[in-house]
Amino acid sequence: MATQTTYSYSPSARLFLLISGFTSIVRAEDKGDVVTDNLLTDFAPILALFGEKVTTQWLSGTFGWHDCLIFAVCPLGIITAVVSVIRVAAPNSWKAIVGRARESRALAELDLLSSTSDEVCELWSGQALVRVMGSPSVFEVAYIDDLKNQTTLGLHTIQEAKQILRNQKPGRTPTSAPNISLNLGPSPKERRRVLFVSMVFGIIVQVGVLIYGALISYYKWKTNFLKDGATPPRFAYPILAAGTILLVFGMFLCAYVIEHHTAEDKWIVDPKTIWLIWLQRGQTVNDQRFESYAICPPRPKDVLLTSRRIEKVGSVEPVHLQSKTIESDPASPFRTHAISGACITLVGFVLQFTGFRLMHWSATIAQFVATAIVTGLRVWLRRDLAERPAAQLIAKKFELDWFALNLAIRGKELWPSGIP
Q1: pTM of the model
Q2: What are phi and psi of 111, to 5 degrees?
Q3: Within a domain: 9
Q4: Is 314 within the bounds of a domain?
Q5: Number of compact structural domains in the chain
Q6: How far apart are CA 406 and CA 177, in angstroms?
Q7: Does the record's keyword annotation contain Kinase (predicted)?
Q8: 375 inside domain
Q9: Which of 9, 39, 230, 363 suits a disulfide with 359, CB 3.0-4.6 Å?
Q10: Cα separation of 82 and 59, whole Å?
C-alpha cells in the first residue's frame, strides 16, 4: 500500500520558496519591465489624453502667449484641446466629426473663452462665481480716487468712466456683461513675472525629459537601459523627440487660436487705483435662481480688465441655390491654424507614444512625472479661481437703494480694504 508523504515547511521557508519562484520568472536585465512596462509604460502616455475640466478651466482663463506656452509643455488634456479648437474656429465639417456641428457660439464661449457677452455672463451663486448662458442684470460701479467732484463724488459707471480710463487699445469700449472673474484675481502686471518664471520652468522640465531620453539612448551607460533584453533601436529617440516637439507646438497653436477669439483690453487710471463694486439683481438666468448681492474684489485694482468675444471672425460667403441666396457659415481667419493645430497635435502624440514604446520604461516615467509637476504648476497658477470675493446678500429690488444708503452711512468703509 502506497503511503503519501507530507512535508511541513516553516513560514520563513515558504516565503523563501515564494520569492525564489517569482524571481525565476522575472528576467534580471529587465528589472521593472514586468510590472512597469506593462502598466505604466502603456498607461502613463494615455493619461495625457484626459483631463477635460482642468484643460477647459485653463483655456477659459488664457490671457496671453505666456499662458499658451505653459499650457503646451508637458501637456494634459490633449483630446480636449483638439476638440476645443475645433469647436471655436474650425468649419462645420470638422465640428461634425467631434459631434458639435449644431453647437451655438455661446456654448463654446461659455466653456472655453474668457469673455462675457449678451449671451454669456458671470454671476455669484452664494458659494462661487459661475458662468451661465443668459443676459444678466448686473450694475458695475467704479470709484476713482482724486477724480471726484460735486456731481459724481468719484463714482462712475464703466460707460461713464470710459472718458477717464486709458485703454491700451483705443477704439473699444467696455460693454456687455462685466468680467467679474478677471477683475478678482491679480492684474496682468502682477502675474507677468510669475507667468514668465513658470513658463521657463515648464520648458526646462520638458527639455529635461528629452535630455534624459538622449542620455539613456546614446550615452555610455545605455547598456543599463535595455528594452526586452536588447538595446533600443537608434531611431527610437528621434521619433520620441520629433513627436514631443510636434505635440508641444500643436498644443500651443490650439491655445493660441482659442485665446485670439477674444479681445482683451486693459483700462488704466495711472497712477491712481480703482475700487469696483458689482450690484447683482435677484434674477433667474437659464433656469437658475440667483439672489441679490453686492460683490467687491478683495483689494483695489490699478487696471480694469475686459474680455469680449470677437463677433466678426471672418467674411460671410454667399451661396446661390436656385433663385435664393443664403449665407454660409462665417469663415474664421484662424480656420487654417485651428485645423493645423489639431492635426499636428494628434500626429505629435502618436509619434511620442511610439517613441516611448520603443525606449526603456524609465523614459515614460520621466514624462509622466514631468506632466504631473507641470499640471500641479498650472493648478497653482489658477489658485485665484477659488478666491472668494467680498459678497453681501442684499434685499431684492432695492440694490441701488442699499448701495446709496450704505455709501452715505459707511462711506469709504463700504469696500473691504477701505479707501484711503
Answers
A1: 0.80
A2: -85, -35
A3: no
A4: yes
A5: 1
A6: 24
A7: no
A8: yes
A9: 363
A10: 12
